[in-house]
Each structure stands twice: as C-alpha cells, then as structure tokens.
Amino acid sequence: MAQARTSQWIASLAFLAIAIAAPFVLPNNMSQLVDLMVFILIALSWDMLGGQMGYNSFGNILFFGIGMYLVASTQVWMGGYSLAEYNSAKGGNLESFVVTAPVYVTSLIIGLAAAAVLNYFVGLFVGSQLLQTRGHYFAVGTLGLGVAAGEFAGTMDVLGGGSGMNFLQPPEGVNLTMLLYWLGLGTVMLFIAFLIWLHRTRFGFVMNAIRDNEDKAEAMGLPTNKVKSVSWAVAAVFTAIAGGLYGAGKNFIDPTEVAFSLPTIGVWMLLMPLMGGKGTLWGPILGAVLFQLFKEFFWTYLFGWQRVALGLLIVIIVVFFPDGVMGGINALRERLFGKAKSAGESGEAA
Amino acid sequence: MKHMLLAGAVTLASTAFALGASAQTITLGAAVSQSGKYSTNGMHTINGYNLAIELINARGGVKVGDTTYKLAIKYYDDESTPARGAELAERLIKQDGIKFLLGPYSSGLTKAIAPVTEKYGVPMVEANGASRSLFTNGYKYLFAVLSTSEQYLSSAVSLAAEMAKKEGRDPSSVRIAAAFENDPFSQDVRAGVLDDAKSFGMKVVIDDSLPKNLSDMTPTMTKVKALKPDLFVVSGHSKGAATATRQMAEQNVYVPMVAMTHCDSADIVGKFGKAAEGILCAAQWAPSLTYQDDLFGTAADFAKKFKEKYGYAPPYQAAESAAAVEVFTKAFERAGSLDQAKVRDALAATDMQTFYGNIKFDKNGKNIAKPMVLYQVQNGELVVVAPTKWAQAKVVFPRKRN
C-alpha cells in the first residue's frame, strides 16, 4: 500500500512537471490550458461522488455557477463599486469601473476563496437534503438544481438578470490567462494531494463502502449521511473555484449558457471521468486531458460535425470501454503481468 | 529513385511557390452560430458575408496600397454559446493569426467576443450585435453597422399612440402587453419599449420574461386573452417570432396591434400564412429602401442577387452582414495598409452610403446614420409602413380578425 502511494506521488510530480512546462511549450494555447485546469478540477470533483461513492450527480453545475457569480461580484465589490450600479449598466460603461492591478489580483484570489468557503456550506446543505435519495432518484433530483439556479439568476437584476454580467476588465499589467493558469494548476495540485491522502483515510474507505453497499455500511454503524454530505461539500469547493476561474477567463457570464450551463459544462464534467475511468485518481485527469484534446480537434477539423463526432466518441467509450481508459490500462496490465497486488479501486499511478 | 525524389522536390517547391502567389489574400475571421438556437440567423449572417466576399472577389478584390488582395473568411461554429464564442475569437487571433474579425450573430455573443478583440487590438466590424450596452464601454476596435436595439420597437409604440389619437382616445389610454426573451438583446428592446411607453403615459399590463430557446408561450397568451391589451409586443429572436405568431392563431388570441422583432428572418409569412397577416415587424433594412452603392447596386439589387444565389429573400440579418464586409473593404482601401491600427482609424472615419443604409460611426463604434424601419404583413407581403419617408403603404389598423 505504501508502495502504491509512493507511485502516486511520483505520478503527481510528473504531472506537475509537464504542467509547468506547458505554458512555455504552448504559449498560444493558454486559454485552452486554463480550460484544461478547470476541466480537471470539475472532473475530479464529480468523481468524488460519482466514482468514489457511486452517486451520479448532475447538480455540480450549481456550485460552478455560484462560484462564477461570486468571484465576479467580489471583484466588483472590492473594486469599490456597487454591484447593482455595475450591473444596471448591463455590461456597459466598463470604462468607469476600473481597478488597479493589485486590487484586481487580490480580489480575484479572495473571490475564489470566498466561493470555496460559501460553496462548502451550499454543498453541505444541498447534500443533507438530496443525498437522502439514492441511485436514479438522486441523479434525477440533482438535474433540477442547475436549471433552477440558472433561471433564478436570470431574474436577479442585481446580477444583471438575463443580460448577464461581465467580469471587470483586467487592468494593464495583468496577464490574465497566465494568472488563471497558475491559480488553476495550484488548485489542481492541492486537490490531487488531498485526494491521495483522503483515499487512505477511514473517511475515504467509508466513501468506497457506500458505493459498494450502502445498506451494509449503514448497518455497520458507519456515519454514511455525514460522509456523503461532507464529500459533496468538498467537491463543491473545488467545482466553485473552477467556476470562478472559468468565468474570469471567459469574461462574460450568461446565467443559463455560461454559469449554469447543464448541456455543456454540466454534462462534460461527468463525461470526463467516464472517459478516463471513474473511481480512480488519474482517470478523471486523463479523461479531462483527452476530452479537451478531442474537443479542440473536432471543433477544428470536423467543422459542422463536431457535436456528432463528440457524441459518437461518447457512445464508443460507454459501449466498448465502460471502465474508461484507466480501466482499459488496468485490464491490459492484468493480462500481461497478472493481477495487481494492492487491492482497492483508487488505482495506482498511470 | 533519385529522380523520383528530385521530381518530388520540384513539385513541392512549385506548390510552395503557387501557395506563396495565392497568399495575397486577406482572411477575415468569424465565429458564427451554425448550431444551437441562433443557427437560422447564423446562416443568414454567413450567407450575407459570403455573398459580399464573392462579389468583391469577382470584381478583382480589394486594392490596398499597390497590392490587390482577394478576400476569404475563416469560420468557426460558436454553437450559440458565449463561452465558446470568446474561446474561438481568441483562437482565431492567437492560433490562426487572423488580424480582422467579422462579428458573430446576436448581442450576447458579441458581448463575449468584444473584450477579446479589444484586448488584442483586432478591428471587428459586426452586423448583428445591437445591444445598447455594447457601445458604452469605450471599445476602440468594435464597429457596428446596425441600429441599436432600444430603437427596434419604439416606432410601434408611437404608432399605437397615433392610432389611439385617431380614434379620439388619449395615447395614455393604450394598454401594452410585453413579452421579451430573457437575453441581452431582447431585454434591451424591452428597455426601449418601457421608456417610450412611459413617455406617453401608457400602461404596461403584462411584462413577461420568456425563457431562452422558447417554443411555448401559452401562459403569456392566456394573460393576453384575459386582459385584452391594445398593443402586444414580442421579442425573442426568430424562435420568439415564430412561436408568438403560431400560438396567437392556435389559441385565438386577438390584439388590434401586434409588433415583434425578427419576423422576416423567422419567415412568419411563409410558415404561417394568414396567421401572420397584420403583424408589424421591426427591421434594420428592407429591400424597398432607396439606398445604393457601387458594389451591390440598390437595396433591391442586393435582394435579387441574394435570392438568385440562396433561393430565399434576404432578411435584414443577411443585408447588414454583407454591409459589414463592404465597410471593411472600404476601410482597407482607405487605410492603404493592413496595419491593424491604421485600418481601425480608417474604420472610425467611415462615412458612406451602402445599399443597406448610411454608415457613420460615433466614437463608440455604433452607426448613427441609419434609422429602423417598420414592416407590416399585408396580403402575405412585408410592406414598409414607417417611417413615412419610405412607407409603401398605410398601416392597417386594427388588424383583421382571422
């Protein structure tokens, strides 16, 4: 077991090295790299419930959107402007809402922190209500969350309503995509370290026990309800940070199409773990990388058919690789070298 | 073998040479919706762009300084989502090396893309982002050939006031029912209507916000039926126009005056026939207007060329898109250079007439030289009824009951 953990740390370092090199190798693809960090965060967060605990959530987009609005609002507020006044201009008059570079950067970071903290409690609350249901009922129950939140945000004039909300313009001297990339990478590394640790704690084992047989776990006196809500709350924290980063990068929030966009981000966040292999540490990460590569590739070379290609890819993965790429790799290794010694689903390093 | 290699090398070299020769092309970039809820209007936009490019290239191209360039456009599909639009603008600029952008379809997408073009100093001429707030940001690289959205339905409100006076009623007695999609464009149109209604002292009895991608507005129809307003205004892009027209007929809702946006691009006459009779439509442009230029000829000539090529009458979205390309070409010629800053200055100095209307930008890049027109569906035809200068017929009021 100790050996497995060591190899995970080595893999993390390798990932970190590649990620540090990426901006220098691909300086013209920075916004895609920022998106990749966002995707890794939402994929790993989704996997905490969907993969480790067996609860398939369509509702994580809720935290994503709240995080986005919160970061945008914090920046406006810390810049010394009234949110209502800022949004009553409907994304206009940006020239009269300016901030200095230090204020921009600190307000972005504080906004992300605030989004993390607030969404922990949102996750806890929503979880305590919704996680009483199981299986399909849970999945369907969470479907409504993002839709409701999007419609609600569309009626809130203080947040710009249906006209959406612009982020403050980054002042001169702030390289926004670089800033977002390093913040994103930092959060991803923190999350990976946290997950490596978590999967070896009692808490982590209870998560897996819930997935394998919740009734038995409950009968054993394990605090299943608490573990479920806290897991979702932690997932909410990282999803919210991802939302803040994504929004700042896109510069414009539309309530239903950017913030609480179930058909795009809301579905992608569960596709990525499925592609890579859910219930593993590296599966969702690998899935996010593959997804981003395929997406960009399809959008460029299969113009007009990109959605069809993406749909086909999903079907192929679900039908032929139900355990994702990581599942395929593990199966291949078992065939070549025999069954792995260490048990447990939170698979070894790739 | 050696010979073959040599031959191969020669072929390669000559291809490279040929490529070099045909590289005298200015490639404009555009992320336009080809899927998702704006796909119909996105198609009109692309057709407008392409027709303009085709005509310009057929005439030999654009003369910039001493060199003559052909025009081309690199398209991406933004799928009607703002996040994707911003990404693609960045990609066009950073990865594809595009130096000049044409606008996307819709205000929301333009809002998402404008900060990107502004950041990189890339001039963008757009034809389909009408939201007022786009032009209060002091953007230096954004130019729009169309009238801003608060002007769309205000002529309908004044028309209602006029009709009330004719009937011997006070304009303030007019009761308005309003249904607007909850998106940047329609909310701006709404703001214009509410302002105008206020100035006449009219009462807005229904003020509904419609969901995006709307295909059902029964709740609004039920209210309209019960409250019997004098004027019913709807704005929700093409889907909104189609849904409102269809459901008014289906549910037997009668209002003496109905005004909406996007009825020509939604083709309500072709799709719903008699049900569309009497509806007023706000439009940026009409083929019967008397504007003209040396590229397309008159507005009617443009309509003819467009119909020959694409098989349908051009909605104004196509016309304004073609005009945007025309404005760009003229700016290239006047700048005499492909330097982005110089082209930007040339764009800012634009003062010309096109088949689409007069174009002169204020310091925020919006066109201040062109009014909106109001159509009415009369006997299955779209006829201009306001402003009076271009009116082809008198407005029919009240509209006939079906």
Number of domains of chain B: 2
Looking at the overall shape, the CATH architecture of the largest domain in chain B is 3-Layer(aba) Sandwich
Low-confidence stretches of chain B: 10-21
Strand content range of chain B? 15-25%
Largest interface: A-B, 37 and 41 residues
User: Shape of chain B from CA axes?
Assistant: globular
Characterize the main sheet of chain B. Answer: 7 strands, mixed
Short description:
The complex is a heterodimer of chains A (350) and B (402). Chain A has helices at 2-25, 30-50, 61-78, 83-88, 101-130, 135-155, 176-198, 202-219, 224-250, 255-259, 262-276, 282-301, 306-320, 324-337, and strands at residues 165-166, 252-253.
Model description:
The complex is a heterodimer of chains A (350) and B (402). Chain A contains 14 helices and two strands; from the N terminus they run H-H-H-H-H-H-E-H-H-H-E-H-H-H-H-H. Chain A has 350 residues and is mainly alpha-helical. Chain A has one domain (2-337). A two-stranded antiparallel ribbon of chain A has the order 1-2. In chain A, helix 3 (61-78) packs across helix 9 (224-250) and helix 8 crosses helix 9 (224-250). Chain B has 402 residues and is of the alpha/beta class. Chain B has two domains: 24-147 and 289-360, Rossmann fold, CATH 3.40.50.2300; 151-283 and 373-390, Response regulator (Rossmann fold). Helix content of chain B is 43%, strand content 21%. Chain B contains 13 helices and 17 strands. In chain B, strands 8-7-9-10-11-16-17 form a seven-stranded mixed sheet, sandwiched between helices. In chain B, strands 2-3-1-4-5-6 form a six-stranded mixed sheet, sandwiched between helices. In chain B, 55% of the residues are buried. The A-B interface holds A 28-32, 35, 89-95, 151, 154-155, 161-164, 166, 169, 246, 250-252, 254, 256-258, 261, 264, 299, 303-304, 306-307 and B 34-35, 75-77, 79-84, 86-88, 90-91, 94-95, 108, 111-112, 115-116, 131-138, 181-184, 186-188, 209, 211-212.
